[in-house]
Amino acid sequence: MRIATPPWTPSPGPSQSVALEVLINGPISRSEIARRLDLSPGSLTRLSTPLIEAGLLVEVEERVDGRAGRPSRPLDVVADSRHFIGMKLTGNGVLGVTTDLRANVVATASAALDSRDPDAVAGVLAELATRLGGSVPSVTALGVGIGGLVSDHAIVTSAPFLEWSEVALGTMLETATGIPTVIENDIVAFTEAEHWFGAGRGLDSFAVLTLGAGIGYGLVVHDRLVVNEDSGIGLVGHWPIDPFGPLCPAGHRGCARSMLTQAAITQAVSTALGREVGYDEALDLAVAGEPAARRVVDDAGRGLGRMIAAMANLTVPERIILGGEGVRLVDVAGEAMHRGIAEDRDPRTHKLDIVATPGDDTEWCRGAAVIAIQRYVLGRRL
């Protein structure tokens, strides 16, 4: 696989700020760039001209500037000039995507894990990277999202679902593929994808809540992701939402993990019906009006609403983004969710801006690709 060699040219400072503004928000007029970055027209011309000459930015089709009422030539990046790979690693497999510079997916592939041995897993990831890289001229960087604690954007400190501790996965993959690699907690990666290219783009603050095998939470405040050394532990899964709810494995009664995960919902419905059901079947039964399934799903929806209310009350985000492979709960239990929100929100408060993502597994992979994109364009590990 060939590795892209042309560098992202802007050095830290105003030049990089212009390039990033166009990458994230382009195509965008020069007047809007100048307004956002508080630059004079002359300064913007001085900063943007070398970027255009270097082929990093390009002038696109002329359009009328809404402020000035005259034609302008918006600036944009050439999105397909560079490509990135993003992967989501689970306990039994890996899904990967190839994206362009704006995290648009151009190829997907997956592979099963026959072993959880770190060397064996790294081999599977490297082989998948080769397959994904074959769909584009070259690959600039590789990102891997993992449910667990990650240090130095390279070492998996703890990943219980893989039974890993202190695995230098980043170095292993860079050695195997020759591609600059960044490892990140999957919720952090998912949130950054929404931040740069998703429903959180352009917002000063927003929160992310993901539903699936676990419960994930991300927060952006003042246009920056809030992270620390505990990011990846899954602390939000212990948030109490029903004092009379079921026990979680840690012994907490009615916490988010015991009520909102896919496993919690399927277990409760299976127990009530006396047979095993899957997640989608449980939701389908609720939609069809099966009493036990409807009760379990509505209880989960109400709990989700109370959790959303707590997030809104505590962090006051402009928007709350719901995602993950279990996000279909929002559609099936929407009324119960809004009842739960109303229980814990002052009636004088404004209506919450809640956006649900499609819940496609590729969204996790896009998140990992965005971490790789950020590492590349910012010139540092994030």
TrEMBL record:
Domain of life where this protein originates: Bacteria
InterPro entries the record matches: ATPase_NBD, HTH_MarR-typ, ROK, WH-like_DNA-bd_sf, WH_DNA-bd_sf
Gene3D superfamilies reported for this sequence: 3.30.420.40, Winged helix-like DNA-binding domain superfamily/Winged helix DNA-binding domain
Domain (HTH marR-type): residue spans on this chain: 14-68
Listed Pfam families: MarR_2, ROK
Signal peptide location: none
PANTHER family, A to Z: BIFUNCTIONAL UDP-N-ACETYLGLUCOSAMINE 2-EPIMERASE_N-ACETYLMANNOSAMINE KINASE, ROK (REPRESSOR, ORF, KINASE) FAMILY
Similarity comment text for this entry: Belongs to the ROK (NagC/XylR) family.
Protein name, UniProt field: ROK family transcriptional regulator
Organism: Leifsonella bigeumensis
